[in-house]
Specification:
The chain contains 16 helices and 6 strands. The chain is mainly α. A hairpin with a 3-residue loop joins strand 1 and strand 2.
Length: 437
């Protein structure tokens, strides 16, 4: 927090997440009523409205290419530094603090690449993993590793860092942080548990690390505190928060009330249908006319592109699902109790008493993480949820978009020029065909 330099002169942008990524995953999920608002986006974004049209049609090939290239560039940079630090002389504690910071950061990049570009149920179609620094280009002629191999590498790196006896430097380390590492370990095991690489122990491990990630954090339980937590002003809320400024239209999916192209899109009917009006998240995001705004504080932290990483709520909800599905010590009864306790923190005074606890957990995740980074899109991928957009009249053509459960759109297109043409062992994600207006 407070950093001003987010680029490196040989790597470029080194942030894990930037506003254009947020736009893509928000456009590709099902929380905004695009059938109602699509023309507003395109008209407001003119003369560059074709970029928004492709996002609405779930057909953007540019942003996935940027994600792929920038993540792997950062991984390559970290590979070089990690190779060098093992050979370097100097203070052992400082070396460990640097090493573990970079290991966790690299694991996070690989985890997001796996989520974005690997078909979820296909173990053989993982992503390339390379840690070497030899040769003209470390990634050249590198095939996909299996999902099992990628998960193993990520978990090995995170576990080593989490078990380190070296203490972090609180003035330097961000990712080398016990709470964040436990939160990320819980996420990785949770995501792995339904993937092509799933193992019986995954939910037990997800539950273990989720419990560790939330044991010292305080979660907001009122509307005022919820908005404070979203904007970095709630004490005891352990989360990594990154702030973006006011940026261009094509980097803002919703909630841009100022500037040359102000607009407020509407929440999707399916999202509205699962909210209780007393829910503090509904009150924070949804206006009386069912339009969306991001809950902002006043200056200096009224950022339209702020996001939170390692949210304690992620660990809490992972713990609920893992408790329900962990065959070695979990129970649906305990999971229900945990879910109802969480509902009460969000202003819902009634308990969930229905029979479909799994669906209610999915609904609770949708309520909690709507309009936040890539989380809903990842959930749609993980739970096998689809979406449709019909009768979109764009540039004198009519489009109907169908994203089937487990459809090809949940494995983003691998860039052609930057990867497939350079790496003869890499295979594309199928079925992507660019729409040309």
């Amino acid at each position: 927090p407070g950093e001003s330099n987010t680029t490196h002169n040989s790597v470029g942008e080194v942030l894990f997440f930037v506003p254009s990524y947020w736009s893509l995953f928000e456009f590709y999920s099902d929380n905004i009523d695009f059938e109602r608002d699509y023309s507003t986006y395109i008209t407001a974004a003119e003369p560059s409205g074709k970029a928004e049209a492709k996002l609405i049609l779930i057909n953007d090939l540019s942003i996935p290419g940027t994600i792929w290239v920038q993540h792997y560039k950062s991984i390559g940079f970290l590979n070089v530094l990690l190779d060098a630090i093992d050979k370097a002389t100097g203070n052992t504690t400082v070396k460990d603090q640097l090493k573990y910071e970079m290991m966790v950061c690299r694991a996070l990049y690989y985890y997001k690449l796996l989520q974005y570009f690997s078909p979820y149920k296909n173990n053989q179609e993982g992503i390339p993993v390379y840690t070497g620094v030899q040769g003209p280009f470390a990634g050249l002629a590198t095939p996909r590793s299996s999902q099992k191999e990628v998960f193993a590498f990520i978990l090995e790196q995170l576990t080593e860092a989490a078990n380190a006896t070296t203490n972090p430097d609180v003035d330097y380390n961000i990712f080398f942080n016990k709470t964040y590492m436990n939160n990320l370990l819980a996420q990785v095991y949770w995501y792995k548990a339904e993937s092509g690489a799933a193992e019986a122990s995954d939910y037990g491990n997800a539950r273990k690390y989720a419990a560790l990630a939330i044991q010292e954090t305080t979660m907001p339980a009122s509307l005022a505190d919820y908005i404070k937590a979203m904007n970095g002003e709630f004490p005891g809320y352990i989360v990594y928060q990154r702030w973006g400024g006011y940026s261009g239209f094509n980097e803002q999916t919703y909630g841009q009330p100022w500037g040359m192209t102000p607009f407020t899109p509407h929440a999707a009917p399916g999202l509205l249908s699962i909210f209780d009006p007393n829910d503090i998240r509904y009150q924070a995001y949804i206006q009386p006319d069912q339009t969306i705004v991001r809950p902002l504080n006043d200056w200096p932290k009224s950022f339209t592109a702020a996001y939170n990483l390692f949210k304690p709520e992620e660990a809490y909800l992972i713990n609920i699902e893992a408790t329900m599905k962990d065959n070695a010590g979990g129970s649906a009864t305990t999971a229900r109790q945990l879910l109802n306790a969480f509902r009460h923190k969000r202003g819902i005074n009634t308990d969930y008493t229905g029979n479909d606890l799994q669906q209610e957990i999915i609904n609770e995740r949708r309520r909690e993480f709507c309009f936040q980074q890539d989380i809903r899109w990842i959930d749609m991928k993980r739970y096998g949820l689809g979406t449709t957009r019909s009768n979109l009249h764009i540039y004198n053509k009519t489009f109907n978009v169908t994203v089937a459960p487990n459809g090809y759109q949940f494995a983003l297109p691998v860039p052609v020029d930057e990867e497939l043409k350079l790496n003869p062992k890499m295979t594309p994600n199928p079925s992507w065909t660019e729409i040309i207006f």
